[in-house]
Structures are given as structure tokens and as C-alpha cells.
Design goal:
Order of helices and strands: HHHHH
Largest sheet: none
Number of domains: 2
Structural class: mainly alpha
Distance between the termini: 90 Å
Length: 167
């Protein structure tokens, strides 16, 4: 009779082991499926995602604003106030809220090929803008009686000469 009990115990243990292995495999499948669903949710674009064609202009204008701020001869706290104001001006000019911009930017940071493409465009655009500004400077030197956009005679905003306007 003792041998029967041992056999029953071994049988019960192996039965539990096979059941627990099946449960563990099921749990693993559920966990993997859950992670895939969570990954898909993270990959989903926010409903108000700024399209890349528009986002690149906003990022470019932010970078220009940062450049304008960096060359100012003022103290750091004042520079930060000016920088923040210029960023706000950029957002207003593009009819975008700060929240929408930062949600979109965060999404593009997670999708680096699209962000890289935008930055490549921005570099080319800024290089082209530099060529235009260099030509304007040469023209101004050749024709000093013309309004000097570089000194600010006709300049409305520090960003207006760098295509702050919508595309």
C-alpha cells in the first residue's frame, strides 16, 4: 500500500508539473501579446500629430530663435526670457500650442528616421537661407541707400528675415 501512495504522489506531482508548464506557457503567450499591444499603443501617433512637412518649419524656426538668442549681448536670465518669448512667437505664428508641439516632438523622437529626415531638410534650408543672406549683405554693401534689413531698419521681428512665415 505504501508503494501505491508513493506512486500516487509521483503521479500527482508530474500532473501538477505538466499543468504548471502549460499555465506558464499560456502566461508567457499572454505576456508577449500584452507587450505587443503596449508597443503598438506607443507606436500610435497622437491624434493631433503635427505632420512632418509642417513640423520641420516649426523646428527650424525654434533653432533660428535659439541662434538669435545666443548672439545677444545680454545676461543669461534675460536671454532665457527672450528665447522663451521667441519660441512662443514661433508657436503662435504656426498656430500650434506648446502641448501639441511637445507631444508631436516626443513622437518624432521615438521615430528617428522621420526626425532625421526633418533635420536633413532643416540643414539644407538653413544653408540656402545663409546663401540668400550673404547675397543680401553683398547687395547692401553695393547699394547703401537701400533699406538695411541687417540693421533692422525694416525688420519687424528677429525671425522675419529667416522665413518665419508658414510654408
Amino acid at each position: 500500500m505504501q508503494a501505491g501512495n508513493t506512486r500516487l504522489t509521483v503521479y500527482t506531482w508530474s500532473g501538477l508539473t505538466s499543468v504548471s508548464l502549460r499555465l506558464m506557457k499560456s502566461f508567457q503567450l499572454i505576456l508577449i501579446a500584452g507587450l505587443l499591444v503596449l508597443g503598438a499603443c506607443k507606436d500610435a501617433a497622437p491624434p493631433d500629430l503635427i505632420p512632418p512637412e509642417r513640423m520641420r518649419y516649426i523646428i527650424r524656426d525654434f533653432l533660428v530663435a535659439d541662434g538669435v538668442t545666443s548672439v545677444l549681448g545680454t545676461e543669461l536670465p534675460q536671454k532665457e526670457v527672450i528665447r522663451r518669448d521667441l519660441h512662443q512667437e514661433v508657436l503662435i505664428s504656426h498656430s500650434v500650442s506648446a502641448d501639441q508641439f511637445y507631444r508631436s516632438y516626443a513622437w518624432y523622437v521615438d521615430h528617428t528616421p522621420q526626425l532625421d529626415s526633418m533635420f536633413q531638410w532643416i540643414v539644407l534650408d538653413l544653408q540656402e537661407s545663409q546663401k540668400v543672406e550673404t547675397a543680401r549683405e553683398k547687395e547692401q554693401l553695393a547699394n547703401p541707400s537701400a533699406p538695411d534689413t541687417l540693421r533692422g531698419d525694416t525688420l519687424v521681428s528677429p525671425l522675419s528675415s529667416t522665413k518665419l512665415l508658414k510654408p
